[in-house]
# Entry
Amino acid sequence: MGWSPETQQAIDETMDEVERRLRWRTEAGGDAFPWHCGDGLGSPGMTLLDYFAAQAMQAEISSAGMNMEAAIALAQAASEAGREVEEQVAFNAYAVARAMLKARDKQQ
# Structure
C-alpha cells in the first residue's frame, strides 16, 4: 500500500525543495559557523558566501565613511546602476564574496 497521489506529490515537492536548498548551501561555499550537539541537533550557521559578503560590506561602508572620494564613487556607481546606495553596497559585497569563493576554489 503506497501513499495517495496527493501525499506522494507533497513528499516529492518537499524533497525537491530540500535538495535545492542543499545545492544552494554548497554553491554558497558551505557553512561558515556550523555547530552540532552530540545528539545530532545543531545549526548550519550562515553560509560562507554570507560571511564573506558581510566582511566586504563592512570594509566598503568603513571606507566610504572615512574617505569622501570613496563615498562619492559609491554614490555614483549606485546612481549609474539605478540602485539606492544601500543596494549598491549589498551588490558589491556579494560580488566580492563570490569572487573570494571562486579564488578559493581555484587554489584547492
